């Protein structure tokens, strides 16, 4: 990581408390990417982390579709994003879509925990990524109809979000307001507000 990139990283990770796993401390949602492509082996490791997440009834409902820049499919995914997300996501080397299967065919019922399980899997994926110095950004800002038209899945499903993955790049390649955001310390609600009874 260059000094400039690592200064942005420090701004995002310095104000976290002691005791956290390094990968949890280091994960944050970057918007500036290096053109360097994570290897297929690295990407497989990230999706293995998702694969080994817990899920209700071990249904493993999470599904991912990814595309590499400059593949045509990358551009199709990009077109589905909101303009604000397109502005920086276009420079990421990997762009993906995450959705979750909502049926439980073995039980002839729907899976009301499907989106919960997808979130858990994505969390594992991004923490594993941080451990490999790969970063990313989840995006819920997209055109749902356009995104749906791109899904290659026959079973009932619900779209979660798009995501980008890559190595961090120079923040100065970003335009405002994204440049400032890349240096702004992250904020969180106090633990007391989040946890009752601790
Ligand atoms: C479901 C979901 C949807 C999100 N959608 C967007 C989005 O459309 N655009 C964006 O810039 N960030 C998006 N984010 C990123 C959040 O803004 C970010 O995670 C949050 O501000 C905390 O920052 P951190 O991830 O750097 O800790 C999304 C995050 C999640 C979990």
Describe the 3D structure.
By secondary structure, this protein is an alpha+beta fold. It is globular and about 55 Å long. The mean pLDDT is 95. The chain has one domain (3-185): NADH Oxidase. The chain has a 4-stranded antiparallel β-sheet with strand order 1-2-6-5, with helices on both faces. Helix 3 packs across helix 6 and helix 4 packs antiparallel against helix 7. The protein has 9 helices and 6 strands. The site of flavin mononucleotide has 10 residues, from strand 5.
Summarize the entry for a quick read.
This protein has 198 residues and is of the alpha+beta class. It contains nine helices and six strands; from the N terminus they run αααβααβββαβαβαα. Flavin mononucleotide binds at residues 28-29, 85, 137-141, 161, 186.
Largest sheet: 4 strands, antiparallel
Number of helices: 9
Which compounds are bound in this model?
flavin mononucleotide
Shape call? globular
Name the helix and strand elements from N-terminus to C-terminus, one letter apiece.
HHHEHHEEEHEHEHH
**What is the CA-based Rg, rounded?**
17 Å
Task: Name the CATH class.
Answer: Alpha Beta
Question: Total strand count, please?
Answer: 6
Average pLDDT works out at 95
Low-confidence stretches: none
Number of domains: 1
Structural class designation: alpha+beta
Helix content: 25-40%
Under CATH, the topology is which? Answer: NADH Oxidase
């Amino acid at each position: 990581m260059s000094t400039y990139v690592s200064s942005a990283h420090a701004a995002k990770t310095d104000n976290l408390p002691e005791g956290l796993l390094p990968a949890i401390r280091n994960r944050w949602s970057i918007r500036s990417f290096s053109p360097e492509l994570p290897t297929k082996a690295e990407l497989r490791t990230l999706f293995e982390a998702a694969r080994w997440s817990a899920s209700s009834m071990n249904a493993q409902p999470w599904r991912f579709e990814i595309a590499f820049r400059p593949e045509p499919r990358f551009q199709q995914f990009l077109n589905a994003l909101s303009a604000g997300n397109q502005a920086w996501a276009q420079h990421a080397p990997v762009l993906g879509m995450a959705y979750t299967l909502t049926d439980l065919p073995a039980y002839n019922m729907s899976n009301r925990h499907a989106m919960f399980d997808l979130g858990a899997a994505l969390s594992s994926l991004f923490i594993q990524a941080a451990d490999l110095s790969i970063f990313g950004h989840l995006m819920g800002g997209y055109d749902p109809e356009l995104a749906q038209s791109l899904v290659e899945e026959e079973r009932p499903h619900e779209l979660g979000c798009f995501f980008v993955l890559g190595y961090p790049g120079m923040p100065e390649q970003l335009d405002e307001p994204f440049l400032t955001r890349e240096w702004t310390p992250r904020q969180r609600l106090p633990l007391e507000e989040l946890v009752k009874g601790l």
